[in-house]
Design brief:
single chain; Cytidine Deaminase, domain 2; 8-stranded mixed beta sheet; two-stranded antiparallel ribbon; 19% helix; globular; binds zinc ion
Length: 122
């Protein structure tokens, strides 16, 4: 089970809409209760069609990150093979939002790309 604050999720979904049709990518930060509270947008991230990447040189600044969020420009929030490789490097919890980026278009995965339940907290 992954828990995320609604305001953090809304911010990520809004950024996904703004970045469409490119992919938006960010890191996630959680609190002591393992609830995701913040979205960390990385400087110099690359947003692209069908790909997005993080500048790993920037990661030490964000060592408290617990995982990642990224958007897909299609209504399919399933992780690609590239996503799975990226998941293993970047933490335990990974969210993918499919177009059109409503709350119901978001799925959560563990580092192996297995879907896990997502709970949105107010
Ligand atoms: Zn992806």
């Amino acid at each position: 089970m992954v828990k995320i604050k609604r305001e953090a999720l809304e911010l990520a979904l809004g950024a996904s809409k703004n970045t469409y049709p490119d992919e938006f990518i960010a890191l996630l930060r959680d609190n002591d209760e393992k609830t995701i509270t913040h979205i960390l947008v990385l400087p110099r991230s690359t947003y692209g069609k069908g790909f997005s990447s993080v500048d790993f040189n920037m990661l030490p600044m964000f060592s408290h990150s617990c995982g990642s969020f990224h958007s897909h420009p299609v209504p399919n929030p399933r992780p690609s093979r590239g996503d799975r490789l990226f998941f293993a490097k970047l933490g335990d919890v990974h969210l993918i939002a499919g177009y059109p980026y409503g709350e119901r278009d978001v799925r959560a995965y563990d580092r192996e790309g297995k879907e896990i339940p997502l709970e949105i907290l107010d």
